[in-house]
Design a protein that fits this description.
Layout (H helix, E strand, L loop, with lengths): L5 E2 L34 E4 H5 L5 E5 L4 E9 L2 E5 L2 E3 L5 E5 L5 E5 L4 E8 L4 H4 L13 E4 L2 H15 L5 H27 L6 H13 L6 H7 L4 H12 L3 H19 L4 H7 L5 H12 L3 H9 L1
Antiparallel strand pairs: 1-10, 2-9, 3-8, 4-7, 4-9, 5-6, 5-8, 7-10
Helix pairs in contact: 3-4, 8-10, 8-11, 9-10
Length: 302
């Protein structure tokens, strides 16, 4: 891109201003829907959703989704954390999972919203991915004509049913994100600047290794040489989520994976994930995913 993306981090995501952010920010999957993800990405024009909501989308976050907004024409005020921005258009806005955000669009604003289930794109969001350090924080940059054309081309393939559709989508998406983040990646390399705090990557590794043991947050903090309070502050600062939220999200992701890719019963999944009481696991799953384990599996099989 012509200009490197300007990434920013909001301390207010960890200590929200009480007059700006409610005590509980709703966690939505896609503007409120709570269901399994039927495709590797979703695209819609801004007007498709915002026009029916009086061009306002209230403060919320997506636990398992990343979003890329192409703001082409019009005007927008958007909130990330507790800071309100009024970018000059055309602009690109990237939002990682967990980032609290809200929008107020001028009526008739044009653009695209690209939504990505992170579990479907480990090459982009896994802790070991090359892009991981760039896709972990909100970022904004000027949108070039080339990126606008890439959105249109991606949307055309996404809306179709041509052979090799998913492979094409993945290739086009990877190319587009490389173009968007390439300048910043080069700048970080030249400056020697790192990505997000490496303790978060270490925490994710510990969670992946020990989630079935149901360690308390204090145990994870001790492994990282931190107090539980310091770990909580770090997680909220880096991801917009608490350490407990990160642990819960990992457990629910593993539960979904086992339900989707094995024939284990819900009870067996509960035991495999270290839950001693399957009914307790069922309640946690319903609260996190919005469906019972059985309903989730049936939804995938429709």
């Amino acid at each position: 891109m012509d200009e490197p993306p300007r990434s920013w981090h909001y301390p207010a995501m960890s200590i929200p201003s009480p007059d700006r952010i409610p005590d509980r920010i709703p966690a939505w999957q896609l503007y409120g829907e709570r269901a399994p993800f039927p495709d590797i990405l979703h695209m819609e024009r801004i007007r498709d959703r915002a026009a029916g909501l009086d061009w306002r989308i209230g403060l919320h976050r997506h636990t398992h989704l990343a979003q890329l907004f192409l703001l082409a024409r019009g005007a927008v005020a958007f909130t990330v954390g507790a800071e309100v921005r009024h970018p000059a258009l055309p602009a690109l806005l990237f939002l990682p999972p967990g980032a609290a955000h809200a929008f107020t669009f001028a009526a008739g604003t044009e653009g695209w919203v690209l939504t990505l289930p992170v579990a479907s794109h480990p090459e982009l969001f896994d802790a070991r991915a090359e892009l991981a350090g760039l896709t972990a924080l909100p970022a904004m940059t000027t949108a070039t004509p080339g990126i606008a054309a890439a959105f249109e081309a991606l949307a055309a393939v996404w809306a179709g049913a041509a052979p090799l559709r998913q492979t094409r989508l993945r290739a086009m998406l990877a190319q587009m994100l490389c173009e968007i983040f390439e300048a910043e990646a080069a700048a970080r390399l030249r400056s020697g600047a790192g990505g997000p705090d490496q303790r978060i990557a270490r925490l994710r590794e510990l969670i992946a290794r020990h989630h079935t043991e149901h360690w308390l947050i204090g145990r994870y903090a001790a492994e990282l040489g931190m107090s539980p309070r310091s770990l909580s502050r770090l997680c909220r600062a880096e991801t917009g989520q608490s350490a407990h939220d990160l642990l819960e999200a990992h457990l629910m992701h593993e539960a979904c994976r086992l339900l989707a890719y094995t024939r284990l019963s819900a009870q067996a999944v509960a035991y495999q994930l270290g839950y001693q009481d399957p009914s307790y696991f069922n309640r946690r799953f319903r609260r996190g995913i919005g469906l019972s384990p059985g309903a989730y599996r049936r939804k995938l099989e429709e």
